[in-house]
Design goal:
The chain is α/β, with parallel strands linked by helices and 245 residues long. It has nine helices and ten strands. 36% of the residues are buried.
Length: 245
């Protein structure tokens, strides 16, 4: 599956007004007509990411079609709100398990995490509207379609997700090497939101400060860290082990 693409001012406006889930809108630099102003106004109102780019970039994105200075990418999936995700899940089960992706940038890592999450019964994935990897055709491919079987929501800031988790008594757990606590000492049978950090920096400082718990995986070799999707998989199967006993 490929992410749908739209080019031209009127088709983009129609897509916005018809509640299409738009991943991002690219606008030609120095273009400022009435249609562009309306696209920018609606994008700001609906929190749709936008970027000003050179015309050469738009020509490449649209394969030289008549883009009129605008190109938009439509998400291959629909998203749920974080309120809907938490409330609907808690109505069905007492101790859900969520994953919060904190500024991950590699779409293949995100796809791999989604695949393992769906296989281990995770109840939902929370990611950033901006600042994280896009959910695109590569994400779908790497997840082998699992992305269509698990709810995904986007938030403006990770702290928004953590506040919601705290308000619903869901423990927030940061996967980090900056702790002495071992993952095998954590109770994963209770309602939990696991925070996985970016490939280069790990869990962000603010998220670490807000997380109620921190834990690490033991590393017994010379290599200092695991790939984030591998680390996430190891933690998820510890969750499965605990919940099956």
């Amino acid at each position: 599956m490929k992410t749908a693409e739209i080019y031209g001012t009127m088709p983009t406006l129609e897509a916005i007004k018809s509640d299409q889930t738009i991943e991002k809108i690219f606008i030609q630099k120095n273009l400022n007509n009435e249609a562009i102003k309306e696209i920018l106004r609606l994008s700001k109102e609906l929190n749709i990411p936008t970027a000003y780019v050179p015309i050469e970039k738009l020509n490449k994105l649209s394969k030289n079609n008549n883009h009129q200075g605008v190109f938009a990418k439509i998400s291959p999936i629909s998203y749920v709100s974080i309120e809907e995700l938490i409330e609907s899940t808690l109505q069905k089960k007492e101790n859900p398990f969520f994953i919060i992706l904190d500024e991950l940038t590699d779409v293949r890592n995100v796809g791999a995490i989604i695949r393992t999450a769906e296989c281990t019964g995770v109840d939902g994935i929370i990611t950033l509207k901006q600042g994280g990897a896009a959910i695109n055709d590569q994400t779908v491919k790497t997840s082998t379609g699992a992305i269509f079987n698990i709810p995904i929501c986007k938030v403006d800031h990770i702290k928004d997700a953590l506040f919601y988790m705290d308000s619903y008594k869901v423990q927030t757990l940061a996967a980090t090497e900056k702790t002495d606590q071992n993952i095998y000492e954590i109770n994963l049978k209770q309602a939990t939101a696991l925070i996985m950090g970016s490939e280069g920096k790990g869990v962000s400082k603010n998220a670490l400060q807000m997380a109620k718990m921190k834990a690490k995986l033991p590393l017994l070799g010379e290599t200092s860290s695991l790939n984030v999707s591998v680390a996430c998989g190891a933690i998820l199967y510890e969750m499965v082990r605990q919940r099956q006993n």
